[in-house]
Amino acid sequence: MGAVIDGMGVAREALAALKAAGADKASASFSRGEQNELNVDAGRMSLYRSTVNVSLSLGALVGTRKGSVSLNKYDGEAIRQAAEEAVSMARSSESDPANDISPARPLESFEHGPSEPDNEAMYRRLKEFVDYAAERYPDTKLEQCILDFGRGESCYANSNGAEFRDRSGSYSFSAMFTTKRGERASSFNYSGASHRGLDKPLKDWGSIDLLMKQSTEQLDVDSVEGSFSGDLIITPDCFGDFISYMDSVYIGDYAIITGASPWKDRLGQEVVSPL
User: Fold this and answer.
1) Domain locations along the chain
2) How far is 27 from 67, CA to CA, in rounded Å?
3) How far apart are CA 149 and CA 198, in angstroms?
4) Count of CB atoms within 10 A of residue 194's CB?
5) 206: phi > 0 → left, psi -120 to 50 → alpha, else beta; which?
6) What is the dihedral of CA 203, 233, 184, 144, to 10 degrees?
7) Domain 7-221 coded CATH 3.60.130.10
8) Which residues, other chains included, contact 223 with Cβ-Cβ below 8 Å and sequence gap of 6+?
9) What is the pLDDT of residue 233?
10) How many alpha carbons fall within 13 Å on the CB side of residue 181?
11) pLDDT, tens digit, 9 for 90 and up, residues 65-120
12) Structure confidence at residue 42 as a pLDDT band (50, 70, 90)
C-alpha cells in the first residue's frame, strides 16, 4: 500500500491558498486512486503491478468570473502556484452570473467495498480460472486476462464550508480469448465484470463462461447471402454498447444543447419499446 495521504487536508490547504491568492469563493477536490493488477498473457500468469494516481483540482471565483487549474502534485509550493494561476485565470475570464459554489454542508463521508486487496485470493482465483479454461476449453487460448483491485478516495471542499469524502474499492476482471482447432479459428471475444469481493469463481463473473463456450462453437460459420427481412437477436453483452450509443447521441450535451435529440422534451416519458 502507498503512503497514507490526508486527502481532505490537501483540499483544505488548497482552499486556504486560493483565498490567500484573492479568490472571493473557492473550491478544491483531491482524488487518489491505487490499482493492484494481476495479468495473464498467452495463457500464463505474467505480471503483478501496483500503480498510484493523484489529482488535485482548484476552482476560483472572483466575483462571477471563474478560473480552474488541475495538477498531479500536492506539495505546498505546487498548491500555492496553482492557486495563483487559478485566480489569475478567473480575473481574465468572462463574467457569468451562473458561476457559483454549493452552500455549506457538514462533512459527509461515503464508503463502498473493501479498502485493501486480498492478493492471495486474487492469485488463487486467477490461477483457478486459467486451470479451468485449459481443462474445459482446451482449444481456447486466453490471449489476455486482467484481474485488478482498484481503490480510491475523493475529497471535495469549498469556501462555503461544504465537504464530502468518498472511499470505494472493487475487483474487476476481463478476459480476451479465441478458439483454434486445426486450420479453423473463431473470432476474438472478450467480456468482464466487477464485484466487491472474490466469493465467486472468475468463470462465473458476467457471461465469461458462456462466451468461452460459444467461442468453441463458432469454428464453422457461413456468410449470409443476399438480403432478408427478419428478427434480429441481440445478446446481453451488446447492451452496454447500445446504452453508450443512446447516451452520446440522444442525451449527450451536444444533442441536448442543439435540440437535435428526439428525447429533449420527453422527461418522465417512455422513449423505447416495452418489448
Assistant:
1) 7-221, 229-266
2) 11
3) 10
4) 14
5) left
6) -30
7) no
8) none
9) 81
10) 12
11) 999 999 999 999 999 999 999 999 999 999 999 999 999 999 999 999 999 999 99
12) confident
Parallel, antiparallel or unpaired: strands 163-181 and 108-112:
parallel
Angle between helices 76-92 and 7-21 (to 10 degrees): 50
Extract the runs of DSSP E, i.e. beta strands, from the chain.
Answer: 25-41, 44-62, 65-71, 108-112, 140-158, 163-181, 184-185, 189-195
Output the CA–CA distances (angstroms, integers) from residue 106 to 137, 142, 157, 158, in the order listed.
55, 50, 10, 11
> Is residue 140's pLDDT more than 60?
yes
The span from the CA of 170 to the CA of 149, in Å, is: 6
Residue 52 DSSP label: E
CB environment 52-74: b (16+ within 10 A), e (fewer): eebebbbbbbbebbbbbbebeeb
Cell 478516495, located at residue: 153
Contact 32, 153 (CB under 8 A): yes
The C-alpha angle with vertex 186 and arms to 185 and 189, in degrees rounded to 5, equals 140
pTM above 0.85, yes or no: no
